[in-house]
């Protein structure tokens, strides 16, 4: 019973903090920044893959990113992505790469703003320090995506070789197919933990960020499924309202929903930390 009261207190405080910290407006900022960052990030990913002669790994990474989106959003985006990435760009490793890095890091900076408000902390570092940190985050994400893409490419080849030597493994082939989704989910969970722990100002133990990360993952799955079902039931709703901008608006509204959930996860962690500190002060006063 006491645990239930604690959970309700955390949720109530998180809701109030979400409103106090302008959560709806910050979610809009995150969604718009993410949309602006998406294509520059993919261009940067392609440039890095070409530089290190990784061939089509950038395409595989793009497919992995699109796999986590509802199919109604992923399919139109995939067509635009192919258009952008098939154009030859001679400036990718010079000015173009620098601009792609800068615009990609805008998405990280937007997440930082949301998390700082959620945790009730103030960023005291210079803007160029945080910007460099955001750029480092982008490069790390790109490297992880390429490494994961390499595993996706080599995985089936290694599995076919294994089943050739050990035919008894063949019935498990379908099970192995689910590993891609499971590994993608694990990568997202790790990215969330790292983001909550290191991106926001100050420091906090991993145990203090796990509740919000868990809530974020669950709500992202539920929200993604619900959004996909809605689009499947009303496929022409956005086209009739926004015309040629339907794809962009669907993407923006989906990203806005994802951003709201992300901030809610941060506010839950922030509320739990605030209540924990309040309880410690009460005990110290002997109340």
TrEMBL record:
The keyword Transmembrane helix applies. Pfam families: Virul_fac_BrkB. Keywords: Cell membrane, Membrane, Transmembrane, Transmembrane helix. The chain crosses the membrane at residues 24-49, 92-115, 135-158, 178-200, 212-233, 253-275. It is found in: Cell membrane. It is a multi-pass membrane protein. InterPro entries: Virul_fac_BrkB. Its main location: membrane. GO terms for cellular component: plasma membrane. It comes from the Bacteria. PANTHER family: INNER MEMBRANE PROTEIN YHJD, UPF0761 MEMBRANE PROTEIN YIHY. NCBIfam families: yihY_not_rbn (TIGR00765). This is Uncharacterized protein.
């Amino acid at each position: 019973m006491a645990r239930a009261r604690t959970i309700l207190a955390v949720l109530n405080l998180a809701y109030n903090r979400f409103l106090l910290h302008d959560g709806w407006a910050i979610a809009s900022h995150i969604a718009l920044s993410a949309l602006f960052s998406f294509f520059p990030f993919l261009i940067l990913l392609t440039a890095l893959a070409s530089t290190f002669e990784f061939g089509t790994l950038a395409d595989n990474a793009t497919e992995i990113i699109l796999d986590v989106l509802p199919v109604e959003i992923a399919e139109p985006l995939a067509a635009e992505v192919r258009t952008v990435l098939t154009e030859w760009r001679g400036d990718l490793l010079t000015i173009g790469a620098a601009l792609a890095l800068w615009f990609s890091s805008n998405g990280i900076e937007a997440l930082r703003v949301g998390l700082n408000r959620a945790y009730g902390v103030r960023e005291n570092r210079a803007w160029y320090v945080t910007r460099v940190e955001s750029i480092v985050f982008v490069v790390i994400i790109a490297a992880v995506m390429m490494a994961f893409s390499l595993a996706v490419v080599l995985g089936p080849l290694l599995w076919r070789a294994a089943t050739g030597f050990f035919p008894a493994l063949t019935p498990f082939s379908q099970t192995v197919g689910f590993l891609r989704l499971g590994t993608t989910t694990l990568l997202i969970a790790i990215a969330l933990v790292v983001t909550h722990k290191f991106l926001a100002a100050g420091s906090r133990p991993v145990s203090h960020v796990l509740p919000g990360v868990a809530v974020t993952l669950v709500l992202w799955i539920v929200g993604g499924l619900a959004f996909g079902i809605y689009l499947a039931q009303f496929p022409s709703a956005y086209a009739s309202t926004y015309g040629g901008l339907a794809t962009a608006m669907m993407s923006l509204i989906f990203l806005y929903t994802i951003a709201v959930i992300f901030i809610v996860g941060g506010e839950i962690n922030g509320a739990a930390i605030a209540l924990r500190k309040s309880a410690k002060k009460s005990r110290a006063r002997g109340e």
